[in-house]
## 1
Amino acid sequence: MAPRPMIAGNWKMNGTKTMAIDLAQNLVARSKAAASVPRIALCPPAALLETVSRAVSGSPIVVGAQDCHPKDKGAHTGDTSAWLLKDVGCTYVIVGHSERRADHAETDAIVKSKAEAALAAGLTPIICVGETQSQRDAGKANDVVRGQILGSLPSSATATNVVIAYEPVWAIGTGRTATPNDVQDMHAVVRETFAKGRTDGADLTILYGGSVKGSNAKSLMSVPGVNGALVGGASLDAADFWAIIQSVA
Ligand code: PEP
């Protein structure tokens, strides 16, 4: 069965406490007044997780983190465990975002260990994959994404305990989006790769990410095989993010 659509907002390293409360409360009010909503997750910076978690409490909106450490605890200054994320109210955690793969040299093996930690803590990892422009130009996009999935997916992953986000690196924060045809083709590659040797592939949630906005959400979200969006920049604007939410409601 096709999964219930999902829209996740990745606030990246943006926001203040006041802005977080305002944005979360605005979206809570809209979601409570709506006839139907998809799954909605807000992923603020770590320091704002508890604030946002309190602001959305009692609403259909849940909270996700942007990263976790593979270990439960210990001498890892500046890091946050998946257990602590769960403790402060998270439901999801993004792992392997291309900005972390690039800025922190995160390999597929590291991403996999983070996804495993998330599952062990009772969180749903949103595992990000996606090719760079040069990989696409070289005709390697499908192989790169296949390799990232095979290398990053925990062996205990099922279609309902993980989410995969396909985010072409060249489309993130650039205003460029993949064409609906390219998105459809790559989502089919993602699902096929995940589904190999299993029967639950149709139930997997695959999000598209890369410059999704209110103005292009309808066409991207109606692509077969797309189950929602991971949204960066546009998730910081309540009206624009709500338009994206409505495109799948
Ligand atoms: C992201 O950060 O995951 C993302 C898709 O960003 P943007 O929507 O700004 O391209």
## 2
Amino acid sequence: MSKSKSSESVKVVVRCRPMNEKERAAKFERVVSVDVKLGQIIVRNPREASASELPKIFTYDSVYDSNSKQIDLYDETFRPLVDSVLLGFNGTIFAYGQTGTGKTYTMEGVRNDPERRGVIPNSFEHVFTHISRSQNQQYLVRASYLEIYQEEIKDLLSKDQSRRLELRERPDTGVYVKDLSSFVTKSVREIEHVMNVGNQNRSVGATNMNEHSSRSHAIFVITVECSELGVDGENHIRVGKLNLVDLAGSERQTKTGAQGERLKEATKINLSLSALGNVISALVDGRSSHIPYRDSKLTRLLQDSLGGNARTVMVANIGPASYNVEETLTTLRYSNRAKNIKNKPRINEDPKDALLREFQEEIARLKEQLQKRSGKKKRRRQRRRAGEGSDGEDLEEGETEDDDEEGDDKGDYWREQQEKLERERKAIMEDHSLVAEEKARLLKEKEKKMEDLKREKDAGEMLAAKVKAMESKLLVGGKNIVDHTNEQQKMLELKRQEIAEQKRREREMQQQMESRDEETLELKETYSSLQQEVDIKTKKLKKLFAKLQAVKAEIHDIQEAHINERQELEQTQNELTRDLKLKHLIIENFIPLEEKNKIVHRAYFDDEDEYWKTKPITRIEDDHQMMTRPLSAVGYRRPLSQHARMAMMMRPEMRYKAENIMMLDMDLPARTTKEYQEPVIAPKVAAALEDALRDEDEIQVDASGFHSSLGSTPPASASLKKPKSGRPRTGKKSSTPTSPFSPSSPGSTLYPQSRGLVPK
Ligand code: ADP
Ligand code: MG
């Protein structure tokens, strides 16, 4: 990133929270010390064995210890940022750190306690106080609140909390959240209400609030638009956007044993956070030309704040206790890197999407409409007055009338008109010279006129109300937003800001002196004695050696952290590869190639939604005939004329039967089966079988008799039909005795019947 005159670094501050009850009760060692004067955080290694190891020192723009007050942070660090937002810059405040270290405390704090309110409520106060003290400026303030959880964006202010929003990009205004609701707010109370609604929605959806809030990013957005008359006599609008970001907990997510869906979930939870880290690395690296903003929703949305045209402050929150030392060091290193990001803040002047401009134009349009209405009326009245004999100068006076007079005037006008109509109505009623019919007609006419009059009046009033409502949203200092602080409070504020500024300068000077000290170490070269030279040089050596050791230790630590990270990434990669292989295996073995090709052909990547989708199936490209049925064919397969429909109902004629072909008698299908052929059994075998199967009382029947007289001999047939044996009668049994003789008597009535498909 090239350095230009207007570029400035991301400001990084560190805040260490106090020990909490539990930590105190468990007597955890305090390993973090904070040097507020120098802006340094010093971390000791808690392990006994490494007592000789030097403490690690990190330097930041400013640091806050456990006694730090919310208001100190605000005055020193956040106020300048919010001030620049009021000037039309974009600004972002990130709270970064492990869960439970005070991110939410810093951002929101304790809402009902003015002492412990966080940045968000303090900025509300700041913004509206600023507006109330402004002069000749019009402001419009609106707020949005969203949450990113598992790479899904949720609008915390919308009624439908199940809906997920998408990111969109426009060349002129950049990345934005589509359909994100925003509320125009007129006072601190209103914007606080917006925040409360969002917070409630945040906790309602979550099954476990703690886990949810530690894994989701919450972004509160305040947009301040300001319109002011420029030197060129034109109104200019500046738009400043303040993003207040409470990030997900930065602690390492345990991924052990996670596979498939769970693994995906685990990698998704902090995708935005790791992408943020990658973006920071790429920005600081200086060699990489590609910054992976697009890797996550968070980085895409806050692209401007990282290496873009916004002002950015990052608050790194840490805990003081020994058991957190690993995470604390990670946080400190992470934020230390962020210090090197360069932004080029720029004022947003007259952007295309300024809502204030739309408001102003709409108000002007409505006012013009109102003007036209009253103009018409006035002219009518003036004509009347002129008829009465007054002079014509009235006209001009009338047009320069101011609002209040106009209001009175309007009331008078309506009353006058109404009274006049009423009088006329009465006159008609009392006029006996008119025929009843004529009277009724006239009365009706008058009534209609009165109704019209009323409607017109209502419309005018509605218009006026609308203008009023819209105007009330545009804040003008001293007019519809009044500063309630008194002189004393104002002085106090000013003093506080001065002190904050002084502190900042002091710290900067200290830091500069420190670095200069090291540089000048070599310059003091005059020694009075050899001993002194030895002493001084030994001291110098010791100091440099200590520094060398510190740097070596740091290198070692960073290398270790890198190795860990790499191993984790490799593990993730292995798991994903395995997953992919499995999917390939399934596709290759269980999905026909043809089907696979079809799907591959239909699949496409939707850039907007960042998701793979499939095109709908149509036989021909853009063939909508497949999809929709013409209106004239509802209930039919094709459009039918009225005539055809009637004919279908009236006459059983073939001509119009096109639609119900299926109701015609079916043609018999061609026969596809063969006649059944009995297996041929030798007569001897048949006879033996027959004997064996015959019941005892049937034995008397001579087998030879079957040939000629079975069909007609009653006793024999009777005995056959009604066997008295205890054996169950089966079809086979009753038919087999007769069948064996088929070859010799094909036309026999006892010939077995085939089952179906043979015409009777
Ligand atoms: P996070 O949002 O990072 O998970 P919280 O803001 O919820 O952490 O803080 C955890 C607890 O520590 C809360 O009870 C909060 O009140 C307390 N806490 C954090 N920072 C401070 C601080 N600077 N002073 C006093 N209490 C703090
Ligand atoms: Mg939190």
